[in-house]
Specification:
The structure holds two protein chains of two kinds. Helices cover about 75% and strands about 0% of the residues of chain A. By secondary structure, chain A is mainly α. Chain A has a domain of about 200 residues. Chain B folds into two domains: about 120 residues, P-loop containing nucleotide triphosphate hydrolases (Rossmann fold), CATH 3.40.50.300; about 70 residues, no CATH class. A six-stranded mixed sheet of chain B has the order 6-7-8-3-9-10, with helices on both faces. In chain B, helix 3 crosses helix 4 and helix 3 runs parallel beside helix 5. Chain B starts with a strand and ends in a 5-residue tail after the last helix. The chains are: A mainly alpha, B alpha/beta. At the A-B interface, helix 8 and helix 9 of A face helix 2, helix 3 and helix 5 of B.
């Protein structure tokens, strides 16, 4: 990592740490949402950005993580600190079960399958009224139990908790994609047949990437559930998956940092446009088209191009 | 000499088409064998059966006395069979160095690639004269350089048998001579058994010790280059008459 990058990361982290002390609760709330979306989009990047197969269901695993953690704490009285790893690992394994047959399909066929799987999960959340309370929404979720004397009922504490998990997630993703495993994932993206002929167990690594990516989405869902404390199936519908895909494309695929920036930019635009709810879809659609025409590799691609010229 | 690869009555049927029919062949360890034949003769299909991309309809294939039929491509690759493709394949959006490194870590995965793997990659860069291109994206290379990268990716995994599918196609005369020298080096110095599919007769005649001729999925001749070149049937279906 170059010195310039280190300085930029340091400054960004410093700003993120200071925010709750300087700015209003509303801004803190928006930044928290942006951080959650950054985690989602960065972990989503592992699949289409590094391994290749385009999936359309990150929101489904986000939802499964959120509901499983919420229901575990509500119904069994499990502590948040146990429900978090349990639901994350649960989503990781479940994604493996879904990914194993689905990833036998290649290209568009896999994308279409995930699209319908995402919708299927949404319908199950909506219609299992005895368990999820369906369209009424699942309320009464408690904030994480306090540890070390920190009361997570406050917005600021929750903000720092999510920031911490965000840093851990991004650091984990960075280490992974720069490791030997990450190189093998990229080789699958670049040429699956050649990777296989070179001895890469492509079927296994694709399922592994899908599971890790989904497991991290589940972790984010779990944090969201105990931050927002009210779950509704529509939060995990196709719209959210679409939003993640847009953030991913705006930011730049296969860079981890790009999707994080993309998530920040899109969340910001959405909030700035709150006064005109219908207009904002038009605005971000135009933004997406413009960015993809100017630089198909997104904001990160634009950054690399400018730096090369300088 | 011991046989490294033995195919016994291998047949592959696609729907109503018999692409490979009852082909038996044996490759001796350390030798160079060519498979020739007109387009559509089933040469590449035979390669795909050897590497596990396709499963034989019937027949058996053994590599170093172990059965190969029914195994997945990556398992066969790990057993020690490397290959290159007819249509050149490289990892496009990846520097040449990383391309070759993948070949090494695919066989033996470490969380961070080991020192030996980096050394092996450097050796390949030197051997294939790719040092100047080490940081170039593979997709920007010339055809000849891409073919060398493909060969390096296969070779860095330390195979004992290398299957080369038309590795001369599209190269200039000078490049063919360079490639020939490389292949000889791979065979004699490193001791890797070579099986090549080739249309360039100069390469077949100069490089290979034995030749197998396929037509419409069937083996019609096998022997030394001299024997095959004088075989009546081979001249009729593939080589053609010499203009007098």
């Amino acid at each position: 990592m170059s010195t310039a990058n280190k300085i930029v990361i340091g400054v960004v982290l410093l700003i993120l740490v200071i925010i709750p002390h300087v700015l209003s609760d509303y801004i803190v709330y928006v930044v928290t949402l942006a951080m959650l979306f950054s985690m989602l989009t960065a972990s989503y990047d592992l699949m289409p950005g590094f391994t290749g197969p385009l999936s359309f269901c990150p929101a489904a695993f986000y939802g499964i993580g959120a509901y499983s953690s919420a229901l575990l704490t509500l119904n069994t009285g499990m502590s948040f600190w146990l429900a978090l790893p349990v639901s994350t690992i649960g989503v990781f394994l479940f994604a493996g079960v879904v990914g194993y047959p689905a990833l036998k399909l290649r290209g568009h066929y896999f994308a279409v399958t995930t699209f319908f799987f995402g919708h299927f999960v949404y319908l199950v959340l909506l219609n299992s009224r005895e368990i999820t309370k369906g369209p009424l929404g699942l309320g009464g979720i408690s904030p994480p139990d306090s540890i070390l004397g920190i009361n997570f009922g406050s917005m600021t504490a929750m903000y720092y908790l999510i920031l911490l998990f965000g840093i851990i997630t991004v650091a984990f993703l960075f280490t992974l994609v720069h490791s030997g495993v990450g190189r093998l994932l990229i080789s699958i993206r670049e040429n699956e047949d050649l990777a296989q002929a070179s001895g890469v167990n492509t079927a296994f690594f694709k399922v592994l990437a899908f599971s890790i990516s989904s497991g991290l989405a589940g972790l984010t869902g779990c944090l969201f559930a105990h931050f927002f404390r009210l779950l509704h199936p529509s939060t995990f519908s196709w719209m959210t998956s679409e939003m993640i895909v847009i953030m991913f494309l705006v930011g730049g695929s296969g860079t981890i940092i790009g999707p994080i920036i993309g998530a920040g930019v899109v969340t910001l635009i959405l909030e700035l446009m709150r006064f005109a709810p219908e207009m904002r879809f038009i605005v971000w659609s135009i933004l997406l088209i413009v960015i993809l025409i100017i630089e198909p590799r997104g904001l990160a691609g634009m950054y690399y191009r400018i730096r090369r010229r300088a | 000499m011991e046989d490294i690869l033995v195919a016994n009555k291998v047949t592959k049927i696609f729907g109503g088409l018999t692409a490979v029919k009852d082909v038996s062949l044996a490759v001796s360890k350390g030798t160079r064998l060519a498979i020739i034949g007109p387009n559509g003769a089933g040469k590449t299909t035979l390669f795909n059966l050897f590497t596990g991309e396709l499963k034989p309809t019937s027949g058996t294939i053994h590599f170093e006395k172990q059965p190969l039929h029914g195994l997945k491509p990556h398992t066969i690759s790990k057993k020690g069979i490397g290959r290159t493709f007819q249509i050149v394949r490289v990892f496009d959006e990846m520097p040449v160095y990383d391309n070759i490194l993948i070949g090494a870590i695919a066989k033996d995965l470490h969380f961070t690639p080991s020192k030996e793997q980096h050394q092996a990659t450097e050796q390949m860069l030197e051997m294939f004269k790719l040092q100047d291109h080490r940081n170039v994206m593979a997709k920007h290379l010339t055809l000849s350089a891409k073919k060398r990268v493909g060969l390096a990716v296969a070779l860095v995994g330390k195979p004992r048998l290398l299957l080369l599918d038309e590795c001369m196609a599209g190269l200039t005369f000078v490049e063919i001579d360079e490639m020939l020298a490389l292949l000889r080096k791979i065979n004699t110095e490193i001791g890797i058994t070579l099986v090549v599919i080739e249309h360039v007769m100069k390469v077949v005649m100069e490089l290979c010790e034995r030749i197998v001729v396929l037509t419409s999925g069937e083996k019609i001749a096998e022997g030394t280059p001299r024997e095959v070149a004088n075989d009546r049937q081979v001249i009729d279906v593939y080589l053609g008459e010499k203009k007098s």
